[in-house]
Design goal:
The structure holds 2 protein chains of 2 kinds. Chain A is mainly α. Chain A is built from 15 helices and no strands. Chain B is an alpha/beta fold. Chain B has a domain of 129 residues: Rossmann fold (3-Layer(aba) Sandwich). Chain B is 34% helix and 22% strand. Chain B has 9 helices and 10 strands. Chain B starts with a strand and ends with a helix. The model of chain B has no long low-confidence stretch (mean pLDDT 91).
Chain lengths: 366, 247
């Protein structure tokens, strides 16, 4: 028995060395792996496709494939539609959302020097879902719902900073070092206020029509992904990821605490604001399109740090790829496991909880 | 670098003065030790010098320019090592020391091989090269203190400000640190200001001493001019006790 433990330990150490010293190589391998998984995921589902057909459809391009299908090629017109109109948007959205939530989680964990922070630490997700529930209640079209939801997400950030500025002691002669704790407390206030308001909307919603729609939406799903939705939210998520990628080394500095960060020459107020705004933008965009999806933003940064160490220089890029993979796998399971869709947040929780326990034990031992 | 502190008064709450009319100057490669009993305001003074405490009454001038004009560029010339260190994430010692290069890095740039080389050299100068890959959460308090000093040095500061650096160091490391500080001052021309409880250490390495009295007033003298009688007053013990226990 002892030998097995030793072997496991050795495998883990080798893995960690590989992820640290050969980081670029690992990133290339993981990216290729992610693309391979995406192609496999394209084949899977209620309407299953042969991998050969999927390749041909992809190589021909959307218009070329439609022409080939009409000419009576190896694949049907339905297959082309399934690939281009349903599965590609859905797969891309799940990868981008997973990557975004993971990066947002890693960013919040660094900014607040708190490994348990999540993309929703400052209440963006609950506030954005209130916006969406409100829009569903009034029967607004999907695109308006997304706008309202994202708007409320941004409102959450503004409210949090407003509450912080109220509680900041301007007379004090010292640098305000309570900022992080104030932000988290304000986030809790905003978060619970808006989740109560969501409950209120559910309470007054039509139980036959609106209530199921709101409830299902809140559970989080990529089932309604379309190219239009993808184009609406992906640019914001990618922009947020890009900004955090650029500033990722500053996350290290911020995670040391305010006083240390200042004495390392960082303009903390400015950098912190940019990073929080970017992470909030990502979260609001994901929630407004796909609903509430938990766990990804918590476990993926933890997993990345366990594999490659704490340096955000590596943690952020690794979180992008692993987050994309995690969400792609979860969503593929969500649509393939049973005949009816399972909300993806249920899958992420079922995978996430045990994985987190393992990570916890692992990081204690390491 | 020249530092002038003129008529500095400081209070946290606007009523009780922690520092009263503090004036001193550091010119180039000098070591100044700040002595005073617990609660005399030693750390408060260092926080004023580094801008963490906002000074409204009095002047702090670096090379003739007020501290508020520097903003974050001050940290390219000044390194500050605080007393307590706690970390939420287990960065390796090398990663932690490399972060000391941050004041010289642009907003979007990552540290390069050169920065890492300097960080390793800085660790080596303190005899810490063998723990460079250890997580900073898993080393002893004394080792961590030395790592933090290595991080301060990798910045190549013109002025080094240290808050009780010998705390939690064993005798060997105390000697190593004091020797190193002297060497940095002599070879690199850096000025050093440190808080300490060890008057003997202070007299060994410093050029001048800044004594903080309990009432907030100060005495600034060359070390030769500071005698046991004055020190016993600072610590509010009898001269006999000071000679017996203090030195």
């Amino acid at each position: 028995m002892i030998d097995i433990v030793k072997i496991k330990e050795r495998i883990f150490m080798t893995l960690k060395k590989l992820f640290t010293k050969k980081f670029v190589l690992i990133m290339i391998i993981l990216t290729v792996l992610l693309m391979g998984m995406a192609i496999i995921s394209l084949c899977l589902g209620q309407y299953s496709l042969a991998i050969k057909d999927v390749f041909n459809i992809l190589i021909s391009g959307p218009n070329g494939a439609a022409v080939k299908a009409a000419e009576g090629g190896e694949f049907s017109a339905n297959a082309v539609k399934v690939v281009y109109n349903i599965r590609i948007p859905r797969i891309l959205l799940s990868i981008i959302a997973g990557a975004g939530l993971s990066v947002a989680g890693a960013a919040f964990q660094a900014v607040f020097s708190n490994p348990l922070a999540t993309p929703d630490t400052i209440g963006v997700a609950n506030t954005a879902s209130f916006g969406a529930a409100l829009a569903i209640l009034f029967g607004m079209p999907v695109i308006i719902m997304q706008l309202v939801s994202a708007g409320f997400g941004i409102l959450a950030v503004l409210l949090v900073f407003f509450i912080c500025s109220l509680s900041a002691d301007k007379e004090k002669n010292t640098i305000n070092s309570d900022f992080s704790i104030n932000v988290i407390l304000s986030g809790i206030i905003i978060s619970s206020l808006f989740s109560a308001l969501v409950s209120f909307i559910k309470y007054i919603a039509d139980p036959l029509d609106k209530l199921p729609a709101i409830t299902f939406w809140l559970m989080g799903s990529f089932s309604a992904a379309t190219t239009k939705k993808l184009l609406f939210c992906a640019p914001f998520i990618i922009a947020g990821i890009y900004v955090i990628m650029l500033l990722r080394y500053k996350l290290n500095i911020l995670s040391l605490g305010d006083e240390e960060a200042v004495s390392l020459g960082l303009r903390i107020k400015r950098v912190r604001l940019i990073i929080i705004a970017s992470a909030a933008l990502i979260t609001a965009s994901v929630v407004s399109t796909c609903g509430l999806i938990g766990w990804c933003g918590l476990i993926i940064p933890h997993l990345s740090r366990l594999l490659t160490g704490s340096d955000n220089k590596r943690v952020i890029p690794l979180s992008i790829v692993l987050g994309g993979m995690f969400m792609l796998i979860s969503d593929t399971l969500a649509r393939c496991l049973t005949r009816a869709e399972i909300p993806v947040s249920i899958i992420t929780a079922v995978i996430g909880a045990p994985v987190f326990i393992v990570l916890l034990i692992r990081s204690r031992r390491a | 670098m020249r530092l002038d502190v003129k008529d500095l008064n400081f209070s946290y709450d606007g009523k009780e003065k922690v520092l009263k009319d503090v004036s001193f100057a550091l010119d180039g490669a000098e070591i100044i030790s700040v002595l005073g009993k617990n609660g005399a305001g030693k750390t408060t003074l260092l926080k004023c010098l580094t801008g963490f405490n906002k000074v409204k009454d009095g002047a702090i001038l670096y090379d003739g320019k007020s501290i508020s004009e520097y903003k974050n560029t001050l940290w390219r010339k000044v390194s500050y090592v605080t007393q307590a260190h706690s970390f939420s994430y287990p960065y390796t010692c090398l990663e932690l020391v490399t972060m000391g290069r941050n004041p010289h890095k642009g907003a979007f740039s990552l540290p390069d091989g050169e920065d890492e080389k300097r960080a390793a050299a800085s660790l080596e100068s303190l005899g810490l090269l063998d723990i460079k890959d250890k997580p900073c959460t898993k080393i002893s308090g004394g080792q961590l203190q030395l790592v933090m000093i290595a991080r301060a040095l990798v910045n190549e500061p013109e002025l080094l400000i240290l808050d009780e650096p010998e705390n939690s160091l064993d005798l060997k490391n105390q000697i190593r640190l004091l020797d190193l500080l002297k060497k940095i001052c002599k070879n690199k021309g850096a000025g050093i200001i440190l808080n300490t409880h060890f008057a003997a250490h202070a007299k060994l390495i410093s050029d001048k001493l800044l004594l903080l009295k309990a009432d907030g007033s100060t005495v600034f003298k060359r070390k030769e001019e500071v005698n046991e009688k004055l020190l016993s007053e600072i610590y509010e013990v009898s001269e006999g006790d000071y000679l017996k226990y203090g030195s």
